[in-house]
């Protein structure tokens, strides 16, 4: 998978992580809402030693974006992520322009995408109605 030239929201998660489970519906909305503006969302499953649990998480939450398994922790180390959940924002040049350790709320994540990745604010109809 090549993300070269893409503005990307990298989501570090684990199946056993309670805050990851809580924020997953938000991340699915973000992925759907910002894809038309060229923003990719990519998951990185870290610290899951049971791949079956990770696959069950993806299925249970209908994860709508690609997610990679970081068995050796190389991606987490490269992006200076200590543990899940964490979000890293990467601009189209491949430069890290923002990071959020821990759980992030939907309004803050949308504002970070707008300000750091230079896209228009999109409000999900599901978020507006819920």
Question: Please, could you describe this protein's structure?
Answer:
This protein is of the alpha/beta class. The protein has one domain: Glutaredoxin, CATH 3.40.30.10. The protein is built from 5 helices and 5 strands; from the N terminus they run E-H-E-H-E-H-E-E-H-H. It has a 5-stranded mixed β-sheet with strand order 3-2-1-4-5. A hairpin with a 5-residue loop joins strand 4 (86-90) and strand 5 (96-101). The chain is globular, with a radius of gyration of 14 Å.
Summarize it.
The chain is an alpha/beta fold and 130 residues long. Helix content is 38%, strand content 23%.
Topology:
Blueprint: E1 7-13, H1 18-34, E2 39-46, H2 51-61, E3 67-70, H3 74-78, E4 86-90, E5 96-101, H4 106-117, H5 125-129
Parallel strand pairs: 1-2, 2-3
Antiparallel strand pairs: 1-4, 4-5
